[in-house]
From TrEMBL:
Source species, domain of life: Bacteria
Domain MmgE/PrpD N-terminal: 58-197
Pfam families: MmgE_PrpD_C (PF19305), MmgE_PrpD_N (PF03972)
All residue ranges annotated as the MmgE/PrpD C-terminal domain in the record: 226-376
This protein's name: MmgE/PrpD family protein
Recorded family membership: Belongs to the PrpD family.
Length: 405
């Protein structure tokens, strides 16, 4: 019986994308570049300047937490796979090969892996980045399997990093590890492909869950409409879509949120004091949705999080976690506001806009790209894979330390 790495490598090597796959790849390229360019002024650009391209681009692309998500694996696929592909001069097919492997490994890891505190974007991301780079480099299926195995030692990352620059940096480390592994495989390094199976079992995964049929990226990808953790997209959307206009925040006396326990797994900051912490706080997300016309980049700064009225609203929020939930959109969210005087307003939502069940429209995507910077729509209007690396290099200058081929 062959190894899981061998099975995935053969699938990736033989992949022939169809039109829908290629459309997903192009949307992923544009979305990832947009959110990366939006972070051009973030301090992480300076911090990561000495890292290799894949690490720097992935870290900066993730720092605003505005990049896409694969729901079944709870992994941010494109922010790993786009930088890894571009660092190896790859194209849409290389991206799709790695993205498909990442979705499948992440699904094999399962919700229990994420719920135990692992950061699935990194654990599934390192082997996937190896596939992106290996396909881009034109390696054989045997060499792709070797690259996957060589990336296994770097397949780590924990949710405790959420709300710090460590979260973005460990995503960058995963992307870089994959590119390094592919270059080493190309240079003749050897590894046992069965390492992936052994590692999957060690971290609670099930190799038997991996299937290589269906579209390149099973389940598709969710696009974020707000620059914060995906677990906050639904409560923010529920309040924005359904709450009546004209409610003064100073009249709010009590806020109750009811949601399955699994849907708040990454929301570890209950009294946030920084913008990064606010991106992982249910309490602050509710406050921002009530205070801000559009909870965008300006809502997730240190100054915004520490606003007196925001902090008052944060203290009013109670979260009732109902038992269960094995993904971030399990069940539904119910939010009830009680005003001074006793008036009560309740909202409920199952699927937020941008989720695979409510895919973003062209207008949604255009609005998101425009939010990422005045020049971003023009920069990305006709962007192609072969030009994308140069675009990032121009706008995110660094001191790239490439691994030897």
């Amino acid at each position: 019986m062959g190894s899981t790495a061998g099975t995935l490598a053969r699938w990736a090597h033989e992949l022939v994308p169809d039109a829908e796959d290629l459309a997903l790849a192009q949307r992923s390229l544009v979305d990832t570049l947009a959110v990366t360019l939006a972070a051009r002024d973030d301090d992480l650009v300076r911090i990561s300047a000495g890292l290799p391209d894949a690490a720097r681009w992935a870290a900066v692309g993730h720092v605003l937490d505005f990049d896409d998500l694969h729901m079944e694996s709870t992994a941010h696929i494109s922010v790993v796979c786009v930088p890894a592909t571009l660092a190896a001069s790859g194209d849409a097919r290389a991206y799709l090969a790695g993205a498909g492997v990442m979705a499948r490994i992440g699904t094999a890891l399962g919700w229990s892996h994420y719920a135990s505190g692992w950061h699935a974007t990194c654990t599934a991301g390192a082997p996937a980045a190896a596939v992106c780079a290996a396909v881009a480099l034109g390696l054989s299926s045997e060499q792709i399997a070797t690259a996957i195995a060589l990336a296994v030692p770097a397949a780590g990352g924990v949710q405790r990093a959420f709300g710090t620059s460590g979260k973005s940096l460990q995503v960058g480390f995963a992307a870089d590890a994959g590119v390094r592994a592919a270059r080493l495989a190309a240079a003749g390094a050897t590894a046992d492909p069965a390492a992936l199976d052994a590692w999957l079992r060690l971290v609670g995964g099930d190799p038997g869950r991996i299937e290589v049929d269906g579209p390149a990226v099973p389940g598709g990808l969710a696009i974020k409409m707000f620059p914060c953790c995906y677990a906050l997209q639904r409560p923010i959307s529920a309040l924005r879509e359904q709450l009546p206009d004209g409610i003064a925040t100073e009249d709010v006396a009590e806020i109750e949120v009811r949601t399955p326990a699994g849907t708040v797994q990454p929301l570890i900051h209950h009294r946030p004091s920084t913008g990064l912490q606010g991106k992982f706080s249910m309490e602050y997300a509710v406050a921002a949705a009530l205070l801000d016309a559009h909870p965008g980049f300006g809502s997730f700064t240190d100054r915004a999080v520490t606003r007196a009225e925001a902090q008052r609203l944060v203290r009013l929020v109670t979260v009732d976690e109902t038992p269960g939930g094995d993904w971030l959109l399990a069940g539904q969210v119910d939010i009830a506001l009680t005003l001074r005087g006793g008036a009560r307003h309740a909202v409920r939502l199952e699927l937020p806009p941008g989720s695979p069940g409510r895919p973003p429209s062209e207008q949604d995507m255009s609005a998101k790209i425009a939010d990422c910077g005045d020049d971003v729509p023009a920069l990305l209007s006709e962007v192609e894979w072969k030009r994308a690396a140069a675009l990032l290099a121009e706008h995110l200058p660094g001191t790239d330390q490439k691994e030897p081929a």
